[in-house]
Design goal:
Blueprint: E1 4-5, H1 21-24, E2 46-48, E3 72-77, E4 83-88, E5 94-101, H2 114-121, E6 125-126, E7 129-130, H3 131-140, E8 144-149, E9 154-161, H4 164-179, H5 185-202, H6 206-219, H7 232-235, H8 240-250, E10 256-262, H9 266-279, E11 298-303, E12 308-316, H10 325-337, H11 343-350, E13 358-362, E14 370-378, H12 382-399, H13 403-416, H14 424-436, H15 443-453, H16 456-466, E15 473-478
Parallel strand pairs: 4-10, 11-15
Antiparallel strand pairs: 1-8, 2-3, 3-4, 5-9, 5-10, 6-7, 8-9, 12-14, 12-15, 13-14
Length: about 500
């Protein structure tokens, strides 16, 4: 799930189904799916992280978790009730600011698409400035504004030089954009037209059709069920008054987490947080969304003229703070989240040439997000490929990972872990997610420590607790054609996968 910058508006759908799952364990969205602290009164005001060090080679790890950039996370609340997460980082004369709100499409409440539409309209107009003037204002200061809306959350971000003469006008403009947008009618019409054009395009995208149907089957009447961007029917009648009402409620200070990283002192960070918080509408945090109900397993087919068939298998996964998260991350890496070398890639692509790529992944959210397996294959092999995938999952749940597979997954995780705090932008994303999902301030350190200690038995138990090969919701999209048997597995399959996915 990517953010959009300036006046450009990007249609937001399911997000990248083929997530880099190992990094997704600790890198916030953006995080599907496209994460950390409860009330500051119950936490130490600062938490020391691991010592600063640079990893030069994986040989240095020697089975130990790598050192990473030192963090000193500080947290407090503003007078209006916004949670603040701050890390001082003096390496560059810049700072990153990210506001994370419980204002995603799960808060649409009967008006699908209003969360995405509200977020897209924030930088379209403020008093005395249209969308062009806003974009020029940020650009002229060397600042960068971005925003995005997803199922769980909406975000607004600012990257600016820390010098006072650049920082103050950038923060003033940012505060206007997030706190007092004017929602101009001409911009609303334009963005609605972009969305409507996107809906028309989706009709020719079997992957998108399958994804939308999958979430509908998986979540039923739950707020996660509908596409974040809404539908043509739901978007068209949304009024400016409705957008203003949603903004007043969902973008309230009490519903926001303010994350700050960069060339700032604690007092400067406090002043910035107070300025931004006071600019937001006044109000409390929105109630947490309800828990989803386990769906009925079964298969749904979408007829679509194509040479390939999209296969999607899913079931309810876990919440962001589930205690099995670490074990499931490593288990899924072995199953299908680790790319080449995972069981699904080895058996489905490398040995049989049935697909260009296959991946699996948990997308932990406020309440159980989806576990999903996705791939494309030749239409005439789709039924047997589906059975093969189910058999691989079933066998993995019975046997669990081997010690070598688990060790390899741990090694991969250790190698990618430093990327979680490689830049201020990475850190501010982490802080926003930590605050939003009420994770402990020591989350990053805890995660790596737990990952190094997870056993084969723990991974097997966790995967079996949360997954079942017989409880999958399955959606396929492609043509109905006579089926052929699968080629036998071999180290050199005669039938190579198609060069690129169709969509």
């Amino acid at each position: 799930m990517s953010e959009h910058k300036g006046p450009r508006y990007g249609l937001l759908g399911l997000g990248a189904l083929g997530l880099v799952v190992m990094l997704g364990a600790f890198i916030a969205p953006q995080a599907e799916a496209e994460s950390i602290a409860p009330d500051s009164t119950t936490l130490k005001d600062t938490v020391q992280a691991l010592p600063d060090n640079n990893l030069q080679s994986l040989k240095e790890l020697d089975g130990k978790p790598p050192a990473r950039r030192a963090l000193n996370i500080q947290t407090w609340k503003t007078a209006e009730g916004a949670k603040v997460m701050f890390v001082e980082a003096r390496e560059l004369p810049m700072f990153n600011l990210r506001l994370t709100y419980a204002a995603g499409s799960s808060q649409d409440r009967g008006t699908p698409g209003i969360a995405v539409l509200t977020n897209a309209m924030l930088n379209e107009g403020v008093a005395g400035k249209n969308v062009g003037a806003i974009a020029e204002g940020f650009e002229g200061l060397g600042a960068d504004f971005s925003n995005g809306a997803y199922r769980d959350m909406a975000v607004t971000s600012l990257r600016s030089l820390s010098a006072v003469d650049k920082r103050e006008p950038a923060l003033k403009l940012f505060s206007q954009v997030v706190g007092k947008p004017t929602f101009p009618a001409d911009s609303l019409a334009r963005i609605k037209n972009q969305l409507l054009a996107g809906f028309e395009y989706q009709k020719q995208n079997p992957g998108k059709l399958a994804g939308n149907e999958l979430f509908k089957r998986l979540y039923g009447d739950h707020p996660y069920a509908h596409p974040s961007e809404g539908t043509a029917k739901s978007i068209s009648p949304i009024s400016i008054a409705q957008l203003k009402a949603f903004h007043a409620k969902a973008y309230a200070a009490g519903n926001a987490v303010i994350a700050l990283v960069g060339d700032l002192s604690r007092s400067e960070a406090e002043a910035i947080a107070a300025q931004v918080s006071s600019a937001l509408p006044k109000g409390p945090a929105l109630p947490k969304i309800e828990q989803p109900v386990d769906p009925k397993a079964g298969e749904t087919h979408i007829e679509f003229a194509s040479k390939q068939t999209h296969l999607m298998l899913a079931q309810l996964g876990i919440e962001r703070n589930d205690p099995d998260f670490v074990a499931l991350t490593l288990g899924n890496s072995v199953l299908g989240g680790g790319g080449f070398g995972s069981r699904l890639m080895t058996e489905v692509r490398e040995k049989r040439g049935l697909t260009y790529g296959v991946s699996s992944g948990f997308t932990p959210m406020q309440v159980p997000g989806p576990f999903m397996i996705t791939l494309q294959t030749r239409a005439e092999l789709s039924e047997n490929t589906l059975k093969l995938v189910q058999d691989i999952v079933r066998d993995f749940l019975i046997t669990g990972p081997t010690q070598k597979e688990l060790d390899d997954a741990k090694r991969e995780l250790s190698g990618s872990f430093p990327l979680s705090t490689a830049s201020n932008a990475d850190i501010v994303g982490q802080l926003g997610a930590i605050g939003f999902y009420d994770l402990p301030l020591t989350y990053l350190e805890d995660f790596m420590q737990q990952a190094q200690n997870v056993t084969v038995e723990q991974v097997k138990a966790a995967m079996n607790k949360h997954l079942s090969a017989d409880k999958m919701v399955i959606v396929t999209a492609g043509p109905t054609v006579p089926q052929k048997p699968l080629p036998p597995p071999t180290d050199k399959p005669t039938q190579q996968p198609l060069g690129v996915p169709e969509h």
